[in-house]
Amino acid sequence: MKQFACFGLDTANQCLLRGGATVELAPKPFAVLRYLVEHPGRLITHDELLDALWPETYVQPQVLRTYMLELRKLLGDDAGQPRFIQTLPKRGYRFVAQVTERNGVEPGTAKEAPASVAKSAIIVGRDGELDRLHSYLRQLEDGQRRVVFVTGEAGIGKTALADAFCRQIDPSLAASVARGQCVQGVGGVEEYYPVTEALNQFCAGQDGRRAYRILTRRAPAWLSQGRGETAASVAAWPAAQDRTLGNLCEALEEIAAENPLILVFEDLHWADDCTLNLISALARRRAPARLMVLATYCPLRGEIVDSFKGLKQDLRLRRLCVEMELAPLKKAAVAEMIARELGEAELPARLADFVYLRSEGNPLFVTAVVEHLIAQCVLVRNGAGRWEQRAAFEEMEAGVPDQLARMIEMEIGRLSENEQHMLEAASLMRVAFPAWAVAAALKMDPAEAEDGCDALARRLHFVLRAGQDELPDGSRSAFYVLAHGLYREVLYQRQSEARRARRHIRIAARLGELFAGREADVARERAMHFEAAGDRERAASVLDAASNQKWQAGVC
Q1: Residues 305 and 345 in one domain
Q2: Range of the domain at 63
Q3: Are residues 482 and 427 in contact, defined by beta-carbon separation less than 8 angstroms?
Q4: pLDDT in tens, 67-94
Q5: Three-state SS for 313?
Q6: Which residue, 464, 445, 467, is CA-closest to 456?
Q7: Per the confidence metrics, is the pTM higher than 0.85?
Q8: CATH no. for residue 321?
């Protein structure tokens, strides 16, 4: 089974699935889709596709265009802004969605991974959250509509929770699920992007016929293309600018009248204002409806996210929504996750402890750390096919797993240049970083640095304000922590050695100024900065001076 977004390509049974339901697809379009899905991320030329599917037979290339139109219609894809099939003019096509096997291994990976690593199907430690979601679902039977926001840092398992919830829905409820995903950069360009994606993919499924008829009658402008309609009739439909929230809300409520309807919107922090307005309207309408909105978001900040923050606060004040924040997994859950990923109940000694400390309970980080251990040959299969530890974890090649490093770099790259420099300066400290150290490293005004650090702590999930220190001169300076050691490593390594050295020396110099006359109190910290800057002579000098000072004071 090959999975992408909410679809599954069952190559054994030659069928396309959406949310477990079979989508009607003729053999040849299925073959085209299968070939694209089996070669994701690369250009598939027209000739390659024709040779693969019609060997030794001449076929007009125009037939590919016909099949692509049919596939896009079924997938709810848009050729202008493709999520699945990208057209490369005069060359061919590329399947751009992420594809995983049922066990989560990406096709085309050369290195061996455990039979379960990456597994969106694996979810542990979330029984309480799943129980809450199912209790909200049961409340729909009384016509009590629900809006549920699921939040947490990147990789904490928001999508996995939504997937598990949808899989576990009691079949006797006959609930329908429509899913859409907000995409960074699209929210400011295309209004209602996740909404139209959810509606069109839902209607394209076998269980979406009734929904399609209702939307065609009540809110046709919300469907980008007709199901089984002629080109002339589709062209006569209202244009997208004729969409009204009232019509759509009424249509969704009618769809939910027969069976509960669950709208799942992922990454709502990238949503456009119009999508947020729809959620607000659905939450505020007083008519009973067996309708549930389940939305995930990451606590990032920005202009679009600030709009969402206002919506969420307003709905919470009116008690029209609930919020579920996913906490990091506990050590026992991490051990269970590793065992399920590796397919073994007994783990090598200290493996769970090491992965827990390194990942800090983030499920995505757990998977990445295990993969990294395998890539470094620290964790290998023995002759009996069981996993064993071949080297000490401390001997593993230093660095952050590539997958996490790329994710963290992307997250940091969204910030301004000044904010990136402040975080880099923060990474020069071992655990907590005071605002004065950031100011010293970057030669900033201390008050300006503290304001900047406060702003980062308000906006970023991985920066936390931890308290205030009183400095020897009587002034006070706030200090902060980076929530994950892996973020600190990425921020530290992205600086050149020369830049790091200059910043370390500035911090050491500022420590000397702040603790003038009491240098021995901070000698080890100053020596650490000098050594990190490559100046071992000054590091040794600082430690010697501190030793002499203590001896003279009668401490030694």
Answers
A1: no
A2: 2-101
A3: yes
A4: 888 888 888 787 877 888 888 887 888 8
A5: helix
A6: 464
A7: no
A8: 3.40.50.300
